[in-house]
C-alpha cells in the first residue's frame, strides 16, 4: 500500500473538527471585524451608507490579497516552507493588536474621503485581516493533503467557513452590539485572534506530521493541468456580478427604500447564506429549484419594484428586492459551485472568486459614482445576472421564438415613441395604460426562461424604460451622486390659497425630502416642511423673538437652507454641513433662494459637525440646532452622551439645544430622554401634527434641552404648541461613543 493509499484510509473526525473549527473562527472574526470597524469609522464620516460600501471594498481587496498569498505559497513552496513563512506573517500581524484607529486621524473636508478611509483601514486592521483572509483557501489546501478520506473534495469546508461568517454577521447587531461596548469588542476580538493563531498552528502541525505530498492528490485527477481562459472568465463573471449586485442593492435600499442601518446587513447575510447552501450536499437540487424560480419571481419583482412601487408598502418592496437578489445570487453561485475544479486548482478557483469580488466592489465604489448620477449599477447587474443563467450560449444562437421577441420589442418601441411625443403635462392620464402594458410585457419574460440572453435583454429594456419614465414624471431639475448619497432637486406643483396651481422646488437625499421652497415672491421666504412657522422650531423662534436679536446660532445640517429665513440682521449664523454638494445646491438661486434672500453671509463649516465643533470656542452659541440626516437616518454619533456634552460645552449657560428627531423607523426620543436624565438637563418634546392642511407644512418631532428648566419654561407655557416633558424610559442603556444600539429603539 502506498503512502497515499494509507493516508486515504484515515477517517478520523477530529481532523475535520480541527480544520472546520479553525475556518469557522477565522470567518467569524472576519465578519465581526467588518461591522465593528465600520461602526468605529462611521462617526468620522456622518454615518453615510457609502462608508459601509467603501469598507466592503477594502475587505474584498484584502481578501483577494490573502487568497493571492495562499495561492502563491501553496503552489510555489512545499509544506515545510509554507508553515514557517505563514508563521512569520502571523507574528508580524500581532503588532497590530490591540485594534485601534491611528492617532489624530481625521477625514478630508474638501475632497472625496474614499482613499483616506481605505488607508486608515489598512493602517488599523490591514495585517490581521490579511491573515484571516488567507486562512480559508490555505487551510483547505492543507486539508487536501493531510490524508483524510474526504481530502479529495475539501470544498465542503467552505460551507463551515461561510456559516461562521453568517453567524458572526447576525450576532453582531443582535448580540454583541447591544451588550458589549466598542472598546471591549476590540479587546475580545484580539483574544479571539490569538486563539485562531493557535488553531492554525495546530493545523500546521497535523500537516507537518502526515508529510503528505501534493503530487499524490494530483495523480488521481484526469483533468488537464491548465484551465482554459473561458473557464476562468466564466468563474470571474459568476463571482463579479453577485459582488456588484450586493453593494448595488445595499445602496439602493439605503437611498430609495429606507435608510435603516440594520438593512445594510440583510443583503450581505443572504450573500453569505448562498455560499453555505451551494457548497452543501443539497446543492444540486437547490440549484435546479433556484433556476426554475428566478423567472417566476421576475414578474412581481419588475411589476411592483420598478413599474409601480408606490402601490405596495416599503417592506413588501424591500422583500421583493431581497428575494430577487437572493435567487439571482443563488443561481450565479450555484453555477460557480457546479464548476468547482479538482483540488489541484483549488487556490486558483478561490483566487479568481476573490479577485472578481474585489472588482465588483471597486466597480460600485470607484466607477459607478463617477459615471452614474443614481444607483444604476444595481439594475445593470440584475440584467447581467440573468445573462449568467444556464444555457446562455444556446440562447444567443437559438431563433425558434424570433417572432415573439420581435413582437415584445415592437410593443416597447411603440410605447417609447408615444411617450416621446406626449406632452409631459398629458403623460399622467396615460400612466395606467402604460403601466398595464409594461406589466404584460414583464409577464412575457417568463416565455424566455430558457433563453437567458433574450430574458435579460427584455428585462433590461423594461427596467430602464420604467426608470426613465419615473425620472420624467418626477420633473428632476438636478441630480448628483456623491460619497454621501444621491442628491436631487425636483419641481412640483401645489394648489395654493387661491385654489390655483403653483410650482415649488423640493430637495431630496435619496427618497427623503430635506426641504422645499415655494417660488412665488410672496412665499419664497416662508420656511416650510419640518421647519415651518406653525411647527416646533417656528414656535421656538417666535417665543424667544423679543430677546434673540443678538443670538449666535449654530445649525448642524444645511439642507435647502430653510432655517436661514429665521435669521435677524444682528444675529450670527453658522451652518455645519458634511457634504460640500449640499452647500452648492442651497446656494444656487436656480434651485433655492433661502440663503441668498435671508442670510447670504452665514458661515459654512464643511466636514463632520463634531470634529468641526471641537475647534470652536466654548460658550459661543445661544441656540444650537441638530438637523443632520443621511436620507431618513440621523447619524448616531451626533446623539451620544459625549455629543450632547459637547453641544452644551459650546452653548452659553442659558443656551438652548434643539434636536430634530423626525424618523420613520427609530424612536430617538428614548435616547434623548436617557441623556437628559443622566446629565440632569431640562428637556421638552413636541410631536407636531398640523391642525389644518397648510401647503408643505408637515408633521415633525422636535426636542429642546437646556441646563435649567426655567430657560424652557416660556416655551412650555406658551400657547403656540403642545410642549411637554420628555417621558422617562427604563431599562435602556445610554448611548455613548462606545455603545449604541438601535434595536432597543425600533418603532
UniProtKB/TrEMBL annotation:
Q: Which organism is this entry from?
A: Candidatus Methylobacter favarea
Q: Which InterPro entries match?
A: MFS_trans_sf, SAM-dependent_MTases_sf
Q: Indicate whether Disulfide bond appears among the record's keywords.
A: no
Among the GO biological process terms of this entry, one is: polyamine biosynthetic process
Q: Which UniProt keywords apply?
A: Membrane, Polyamine biosynthesis, Transmembrane, Transmembrane helix
Xref: Gene3D superfamilies: MFS general substrate transporter like domains (1.20.1250.20), Vaccinia Virus protein VP39 (3.40.50.150)
- List residues traversing the bilayer: 12-31, 51-70, 82-101, 113-134, 155-176, 188-208, 229-249, 261-279, 291-312, 318-337, 349-372, 378-395, 407-424, 430-448, 455-473
Q: What is this protein called?
A: Spermidine synthase
Lineage of the organism: Bacteria, Pseudomonadati, Pseudomonadota, Gammaproteobacteria, Methylococcales
Q: Which PANTHER family match?
A: THERMOSPERMINE SYNTHASE ACAULIS5
Amino acid at each position: 500500500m502506498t503512502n497515499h493509499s494509507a493516508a486515504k484510509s484515515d477517517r478520523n473526525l477530529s481532523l475535520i473538527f480541527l480544520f472546520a473549527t479553525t475556518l469557522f473562527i477565522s470567518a467569524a472574526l472576519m465578519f465581526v471585524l467588518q461591522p465593528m470597524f465600520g461602526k468605529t469609522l462611521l462617526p468620522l464620516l456622518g454615518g453615510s451608507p457609502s462608508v459601509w460600501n467603501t469598507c466592503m471594498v477594502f475587505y474584498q481587496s484584502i481578501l483577494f490579497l490573502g487568497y493571492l498569498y495562499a495561492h502563491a505559497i501553496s503552489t510555489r513552496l512545499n509544506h515545510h516552507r509554507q508553515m514557517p513563512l505563514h508563521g512569520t506573517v502571523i507574528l508580524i500581524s500581532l503588532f497590530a493588536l490591540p485594534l485601534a484607529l491611528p492617532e489624530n486621524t481625521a477625514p478630508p473636508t474638501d475632497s472625496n474621503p474614499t482613499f483616506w478611509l481605505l488607508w486608515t483601514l489598512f493602517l488599523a486592521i490591514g495585517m490581521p485581516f490579511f491573515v484571516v483572509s488567507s486562512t480559508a483557501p490555505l487551510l483547505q489546501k492543507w486539508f487536501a493533503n493531510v490524508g483524510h478520506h474526504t481530502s479529495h473534495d475539501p470544498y465542503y469546508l467552505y460551507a463551515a467557513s461561510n456559516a461562521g461568517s453568517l453567524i458572526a454577521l447576525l450576532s453582531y447587531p443582535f448580540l454583541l452590539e447591544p451588550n458589549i461596548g466598542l472598546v471591549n469588542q476590540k479587546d475580545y476580538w484580539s483574544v479571539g485572534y490569538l486563539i485562531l493563531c493557535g488553531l492554525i498552528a495546530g493545523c500546521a502541525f497535523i500537516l507537518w506530521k502526515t508529510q503528505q505530498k501534493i503530487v499524490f492528490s494530483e495523480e488521481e485527477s484526469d483533468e488537464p493541468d491548465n484551465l482554459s481562459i473561458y473557464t476562468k472568465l466564466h468563474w470571474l463573471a459568476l463571482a463579479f456580478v453577485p459582488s456588484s449586485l450586493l453593494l448595488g442593492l445595499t445602496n439602493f435600499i439605503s437611498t430609495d427604500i429606507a435608510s435603516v442601518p440594520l438593512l445594510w446587513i440583510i443583503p450581505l447575510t443572504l450573500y453569505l447564506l448562498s455560499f453555505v447552501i451551494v457548497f452543501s450536499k443539497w446543492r444540486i437540487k437547490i440549484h435546479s429549484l433556484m433556476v426554475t424560480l428566478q423567472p417566476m419571481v421576475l414578474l412581481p419583482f419588475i411589476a411592483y419594484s420598478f413599474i409601480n412601487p408606490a402601490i405596495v408598502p416599503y417592506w413588501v418592496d424591500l422583500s421583493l428586492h431581497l428575494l430577487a437578489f437572493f435567487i439571482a445570487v443563488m443561481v450565479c453561485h450555484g453555477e460557480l459551485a457546479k464548476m468547482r475544479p479538482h483540488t489541484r486548482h483549488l487556490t486558483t478557483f478561490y483566487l479568481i472568486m476573490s479577485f472578481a469580488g474585489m472588482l465588483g466592489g471597486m466597480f460600485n465604489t470607484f466607477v459607478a459614482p463617477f459615471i452614474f448620477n443614481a444607483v444604476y449599477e444595481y439594475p445593470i447587474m440584475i440584467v447581467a445576472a440573468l445573462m449568467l443563467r444556464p444555457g446562455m450560449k444556446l440562447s444567443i444562437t437559438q431563433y425558434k421564438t424570433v417572432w415573439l421577441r420581435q413582437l415584445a420589442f415592437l410593443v416597447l418601441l411603440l410605447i417609447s415613441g408615444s411617450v416621446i411625443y406626449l406632452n409631459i403635462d398629458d403623460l399622467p392620464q396615460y400612466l395606467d395604460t402604460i403601466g398595464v402594458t409594461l406589466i404584460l410585457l414583464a409577464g412575457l419574460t417568463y416565455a424566455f426562461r430558457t433563453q437567458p440572453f433574450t430574458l435579460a435583454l427584455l428585462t433590461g429594456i423594461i427596467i430602464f424604460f420604467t426608470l426613465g419614465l419615473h425620472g420624467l414624471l418626477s420633473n428632476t431639475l438636478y441630480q448628483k451622486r456623491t460619497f454621501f448619497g444621491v442628491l436631487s432637486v425636483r419641481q412640483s406643483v401645489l394648489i395654493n390659497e387661491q385654489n390655483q396651481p403653483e410650482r415649488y422646488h423640493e430637495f431630496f437625499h435619496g427618497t427623503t425630502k430635506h426641504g422645499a421652497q415655494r417660488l412665488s415672491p410672496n412665499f419664497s421666504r416662508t420656511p416650510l416642511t419640518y421647519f415651518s412657522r406653525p411647527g416646533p422650531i417656528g414656535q421656538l423662534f417666535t417665543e424667544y423673538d423679543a430677546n434673540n436679536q443678538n443670538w449666535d446660532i449654530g445649525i448642524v445640517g444645511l439642507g435647502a437652507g430653510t432655517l436661514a429665513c429665521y435669521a435677524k440682521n444682528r444675529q450670527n449664523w453658522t451652518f455645519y454641513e458634511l457634504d460640500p454638494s449640499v452647500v452648492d445646491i442651497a446656494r444656487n438661486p436656480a434651485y433655492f433662494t433661502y440663503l441668498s434672500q435671508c442670510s447670504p453671509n452665514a458661515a459654512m463649516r464643511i466636514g463632520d459637525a463634531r470634529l468641526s465643533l471641537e475647534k470652536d470656542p466654548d460658550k459661543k452659541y445661544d441656540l444650537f440646532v441638530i438637523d443632520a440626516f443621511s436620507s431618513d437616518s440621523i447619524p448616531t454619533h451626533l446623539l451620544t452622551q459625549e455629543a450632547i456634552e459637547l453641544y452644551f460645552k459650546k452653548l452659553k449657560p442659558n443656551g438652548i439645544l434643539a434636536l430634530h428627531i423626525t424618523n420613520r423607523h427609530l424612536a430617538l426620543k428614548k435616547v434623548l430622554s436617557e441623556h437628559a436624565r443622566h446629565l440632569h438637563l431640562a428637556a421638552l418634546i413636541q410631536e407636531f401634527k398640523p391642525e389644518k392642511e397648510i401647503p408643505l407644512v408637515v408633521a415633525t418631532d422636535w426636542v429642546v434641552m437646556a441646563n435649567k428648566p426655567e430657560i424652557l419654561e416660556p416655551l412650555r407655557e406658551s400657547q403656540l404648541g403642545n410642549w411637554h416633558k420628555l417621558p422617562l424610559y427604563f431599562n435602556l442603556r445610554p448611548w455613548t461613543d462606545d455603545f449604541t444600539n438601535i434595536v432597543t429603539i425600533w418603532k
